[in-house]
Design brief:
5-stranded antiparallel sheet; alpha/beta; 33% helix; Membrane-bound Lytic Murein Transglycosylase D, Chain A; 12 helices; 380 residues
Amino acid sequence: MNIYVVKPDDTIDKIAKEQNTDLASMIEINQLTPPYRLAVGQALLLSEDIPPDTFSPYLPHAQAIFRSGYAYPFISAPVLTETLSYLSELAVFSYGFTASGDLIPPSPDDTWMIAEAQRAGVMATLTLTPLGADGHFNNTLVTSLVHSRAIQRRLINGLAAVMLEKGYQAVNIDFEYVLGEDKNAFTAFVSYATYVLNILGYQVSVALAPKYSDDQPGVLYEGMDYAGLGAAANWVVLMTYEWGYTYGPPMAVAPINQVRRVLRYALTKIPPAKICLGVPNYGYDWPLPYIRGATKAATLGNIEAVQTAIFYGVPILFDETAKSPWFTYWQYGVQHEVWFEDVRSWQEKFKLVREFGLRGIAVWQIMKLFRAGWVLLDSM
């Protein structure tokens, strides 16, 4: 595979001829659409040996590393079908629970997703979160759960029943904003859940907020015991994204220098074979100037970001420190700044998996198709 960065005056025909690549494959891999306009600075994945009919029908692809992808039940069927061909695990987001330990299923129903995963030979995983009625993580629910063995038993029994009924094969525990005073109790809960569910034949993973040190302050970090949770679960997911986020200042979602920093710390606590590196599959569009507490960024897909740059006729830049693409444009007198992911930024993250011998990747989330990223992963 070859990554080509579009130059001024490039066209798809000119690139295909000069780079000796199949035009139809280039269009298909990069999800290019008529009239095939390009943005200067756009990264294209090129190949000489992938025929365009590879992508239809959607056949399973060889997998050298573990690949997980999170998805909501309202994902479009064509996107799920194609993406499943690249996955080892589909993590359905998400099941909640009440203060008494009763499971709350997702809406809409998730049954069809599990059936699609089974048809593709992909492990279906139930993602468990303490999301409250307002859609935010509720650490009061976490506190009630981790300090009551009776509530834990009720919840785990409920998990086992649903998994048996629906065909789930694993649980991903994604508890965020765990209070510092609940750290040890949370670790004990993950250990207990893993012990019980493993006996029943199910695997358990746990999602970890990105930390740099043992004593890092902040509500995201204080309840995360990397060593304890790494030992308790069958494997972990490092949530190495959201440096750039909806209410924060414009910046890369997953700057590689920060991702590497988190990974280096994690590797001092957890064996590499138990670590899945979190990879974002989206970007943000910020209106400028950024005002803390007032500015809200809009989420957009990677292909959508490129199409925005093309529509406004602006070049895509690439930050060499963050290893991430970005650009600015004007709309109705307001300047916008966009950071997103492309094959160059995904490649940098895949290199970390290979460099440190990690278990694999976990993509948040697969709601929008990014075909070039998956094809790139197949080639590495």
